[in-house]
Amino acid sequence: xxxxxxxxxxxxxxxxxxxxxxxxxxxxxxxxxxxxxxxxxxxxxxxxxxxxxxxxxxxxxxxxxxxxxxxxxxxxxxxxxxxxxxxxxxxxxxxxxxxxxxxxxxxxxxxxxxxxxxxxxxxxxxxxxxxxxxxxxxxxxxxxxxxxxxxxxxxxxxxxxxxxxxxxxxxxxxxxxxxxxxxxxxxxxxxxxxxxxxxxxxxxxxxxxxxxxxxxxxxxxxxxxxxxxxxxxxxxxxxxxxxxxxxxxxxxxxxxxxxxxxxxxxxxxxxxxxxxxxxxxxxxxxxxxxxxxxxxxxxxxxxxxxxxxxxxxxxxxxxxxxxxxxxxxxxxxxxxxxxxxxxxxxxxxxxxxxxxxxxxxxxxxxxxxxxxxxxxxxxxxxxxxxxxxxxxxxxxxxxxxxxxxxxxxxxxxxxxxxxxxxxxxxxxxxxxxxxxxxxxxxxxxxxxxxxxxxxxxxxxxxxxxxxxxxxxxxxxxxxxxxxxxxxxxxxxxxxxxxxxxxxxxxxxxxxxxxxxxxxxxxxxxxxxxxxxxxxxxxxxxxxxxxxxxxxx
Length: 552
Prior knowledge:
5-stranded mixed sheet, single chain, alpha/beta
């Protein structure tokens, strides 16, 4: 089969005039990359010369035309590869992209021999781009970046695309509708790993494109994406820096946005909220939030609020969302709708593994499941688990150890450690303050991440330390949570109004365990500090291996 070819010309009219009119690529499906010193645009066409002449009239900050051709290209393949290139160029971070999502298929259909184009040919193409210095990084480096995983240009599933269309229609309708004191609310529900953040990134990108289009109902709207999570906010702002029509100032923490709008005495059009289960439900002097509820205040200051919500990811009393509280917000809204997302995207695990984790969250220990494609493994020591994670990180990248918040965290510049039950092995808690997400820093392979550095992010392999708060009662054959050993005291502040405090504390710990266990795409490793729990899990693992000897 023929090889990929990349032809290059200066971005000038003369370049097109000098192309032989008999060249096959002039009326054949091709892909192209237009690049300057700092910016790039990626497209596909079957009328190359005509398309380039249009770009020459309108596109700025471009110096070169790079044509990508292959004898077996068809229109479906070039559409698909265009989408992939845009995502990988975003993750490569060499150029700021001039692309808008209307040039990208949010959903790429199946077509003949798609796996060949998606895998073999794309690898060949990227290698050539790398050789010609049009890109800086290899594919595996980009694939481990959070900016790539949250790309607004990602190919969406049918379920995700349906949701995106529904949200955009909701925004267009409610922005133009007369509103009262509170705006309209759309709640997107779904557990960890169902692709909620990818969808909201794509939706916000399209909204920001449409605000500059006179024909759109969202023309000249003022919109924000907010997230009450410092690490995720870094990633969103990194994406904005790489996409020309996005602005870093459109991404904020909720308190900062609320206080800013108060100061300016203005109301905005659309606010999208990622990780809305982290929104405050009580005043918080430490975060300069003087009101009672983040979501209520956002509804007062925006015509439309779209929230990503998972009740099982609540981690603090001051963010304690219950069904009743969310229902109250829906009733306050001018209009309210709910859309569930259900398909698991992060974990490449079978239903038995997902169910085992979900039942653990309910304090039930099922027999350890088998999955030939997902590695669920129990370790005798934290040291052995850390060594295994280091090995996976060397092989696949983006593998880290994380822990329940059962150990003292940093204070006054001192370093605190997560320690093995016998005290012979220890690792420092995660460092903070970097401009990068915690897991993307090379040095953090020798640290332990907390729930606050890893929530919302993917890892290839995750090693979870279940600290002293997570125990096992052999007589009852169930998980026991000792909330007094959970050292995140900030999680328990603001208990006023909570009817069953003990139950609420337990739920917070179980939620954190569930989040940690669902970080790994390809594998979950577990070390339990509690001796009874560790022995129970190790015995279950022996039984599973005995019954399924092919499992490693």
